[in-house]
């Protein structure tokens, strides 16, 4: 978020200075799909992390995917992307009511934009209303629907997480600043 002061070093970088020799994971077993840890394995662990495949490795609706919505970024908001996230979320609630959902935006402004649009859509869609009510009470609300910014989402687990990357060109086809 533009308003937050972010340390130049990550926690991982700071801990690697303190622990000599650096401690590294040797294996990872928690992801329901190995694609979820593939980026970290490549960039942080030089592909030395042992990752166990899951039973759902080849399911087309599992793992990580990118949908380019060709939105534009202005004033900390990508309206096109917010609209697409909400449309997808409403379809998801209707199609897969027994899977939990979380939505993450890279900054607070985009989070607020998505939150407002999603709440308006839920009020006018019976399937989405039922979905929200179910997850508000299922397992005491442990996996209820959320819309959060990146800084406040650490450790949350849902069956599906939608991420609004927010950034894009100021005009279609233009350069992306971030």
Notable features of this structure?
two-stranded parallel ribbon; 5 helices; alpha/beta; 3-stranded parallel β-sheet; 5 strands; 178 residues; single chain
Structural description of this entry:
This protein is α/β, with parallel strands linked by helices. The chain has helices spanning 11-18, 35-43, 79-95, 108-123, 126-137; strands at residues 27-28, 50-51, 101-105, 146-149, 160-164. It has a three-stranded parallel beta sheet with strand order 4-3-5. Strand 1 (27-28), helix 2 and strand 2 form a beta-alpha-beta unit. Helix 3 (79-95) packs across helix 4 (108-123) and helix 3 packs across helix 5. It is globular, with a radius of gyration of 18 Å. The model has no long low-confidence stretch (mean pLDDT 85).
């Amino acid at each position: 978020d533009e308003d937050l002061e972010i340390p130049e070093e990550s926690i991982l970088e700071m801990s690697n200075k303190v622990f000599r020799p650096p401690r590294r994971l040797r294996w990872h077993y928690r992801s329901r799909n190995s694609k979820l840890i593939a980026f970290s394995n490549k960039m942080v662990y030089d592909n030395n992390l042992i990752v166990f495949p899951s039973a759902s490795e080849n399911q087309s609706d599992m793992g990580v995917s990118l949908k380019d919505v060709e939105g534009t970024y202005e004033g900390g908001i990508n309206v096109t992307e917010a609209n697409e996230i909400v449309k997808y979320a409403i379809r998801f609630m209707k199609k897969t009511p027994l899977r939990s959902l979380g939505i993450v935006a890279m900054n607070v402004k985009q989070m607020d934009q998505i939150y407002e649009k999603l709440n308006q859509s839920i009020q006018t869609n019976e399937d989405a209303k039922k979905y929200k009510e179910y997850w508000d009470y299922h397992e005491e609300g442990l996996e209820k629907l959320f819309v959060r910014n990146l800084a406040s989402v650490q450790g949350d687990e849902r069956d599906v997480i939608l991420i609004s990357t927010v950034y894009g060109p100021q005009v279609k086809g233009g350069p992306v600043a971030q």
